[in-house]
Amino acid sequence: MDHNKFYDDLHKNMIGKEDSYLEVDDSDIILEILNFLNLSENIRVLDLGCGSGFLTKKILDKLKPNMVTGLDISKEAITLARERFSNIFFICGDAEVLNSLNGKKFDLIVSADLFEHLGNQRLHLKSIKTIMERDGVYLLKTPNKVWDDLYYKKILLRKDYQKKHVWWLAHKNVRTSKFLKTMLKEEGFEYKFLRIKRLTEANRKKVRLIFGDPLSNIVIVVIHFLLFVLPINLSPYFIVLINFKNE
User: Fold this and answer.
1) Any residues with CB less than 8 A from the CB of 12 and at least 6 apart, and which?
2) What is the pLDDT of residues 22-74, one digit of tens each?
3) Radius of gyration for the alpha carbons in the chain, expressed in angstroms and rounded
4) Residues 96 and 71 sit within 8 Å (Cβ to Cβ)
5) What is the pLDDT of residue 20?
6) Can you give the pLDDT at residue 53?
7) Buried b (16+ CB within 10 A) or exposed e, 98-109
8) Backbone angles phi, psi at 14, to 5 degrees
9) Are the C-beta atoms of residues 54 and 85 closer than 8 Å to each other?
10) H, E, C per residue of the chain
11) Which residues does the chain have with pLDDT short of 70?
């Protein structure tokens, strides 16, 4: 598969459509976490897999950093981001190798729903080491394989949805918490998995597709209750704070 073309086609065909996950705004979850990181304004921020830039812009407004950069593999997405937000530096590049950043280093790196799209996640983590400051933070948000498998196995049974629902093709490597912890440890990182408090809007869309209304509303309420009692390894998605190991 030509992944550059795949994501370009997604942005061409799905931006602005009602059932598009590209236009789902879950940035409030990321912004809430940034509140607790006690970050200074004099920082450099990188938004990986920035898409059309809506999260990048909100990070800029929230943190007022010294510099914010958005990176995405899709030329279509970067073109749209530049049109929308001319005051932000956007670059088209590969998040696995990160060689398009020309040696720049960042204090905060954010990737929201990018990690599961990467074919070589270990290469990505090795690349993160080259661009993150020693006291920097990598904020990673990614779906849980347990929930992801349940959803896609269920939804792909619906023939009316198979052709238009192509995200399952893009989710190359969705991981369990155990797998993530092992990988991060082996690559020389410390990490903290945060307890999530609610479903994302993308999660809620998936619940509605499976159960329909009004049952989906009841299911969402039940899941929100369970989030407070289930172990973190059973969360629908993971939010992980990643740092270099103290030496």
Assistant:
1) 76
2) 555 678 899 999 988 888 878 999 999 998 899 999 999 999 999 999 999 99
3) 18
4) no
5) 45
6) 92
7) beebeeeebbbb
8) -115, -20
9) no
10) CCHHHHHHHHHHHHCCCCCCHHHCCCHHHHHHHHHCCCCCCCCEEEEECCCCCHHHHHHHHHHCCCEEEEEECCHHHHHHHHHHCCCCEEEECCCCCCHHHCCCCEEEEEEECCHHHCCCHHHHHHHHHHHEEEEEEEEEEEEEHHHHHHHHHHHCCCHHHHCCCCHHHHCCCCECHHHHHHHHHHCCEEEEEECCCCCCHHHHHHHHHHHCCCHHHHHHHHHHHHCCCCCHHHCCEEEEEEEECCC
11) 1-25, 153-169, 247
Token pair for residue 205?
């869309």
Q: CA nearest 109: which of 21, 44, 51, 179?
A: 44
CA distances (Å), origin 133, targets 46, 140, 194? 12, 16, 22
Residue ranges and CATH numbers for the domains of the chain are 3-144+165-195+237-244 (3.40.50.150)
pTM of the shown model: 0.89
CA distances in angstroms from 15 to 11, 21, 234, listed in the order given: 5, 9, 31
Cβ-Cβ contacts under 8 Å for 175 (sequence gap 6 or more): 115, 116, 121, 142, 145, 183
Per-residue pLDDT, 14 = 55
Residue 11 has a pLDDT of 56
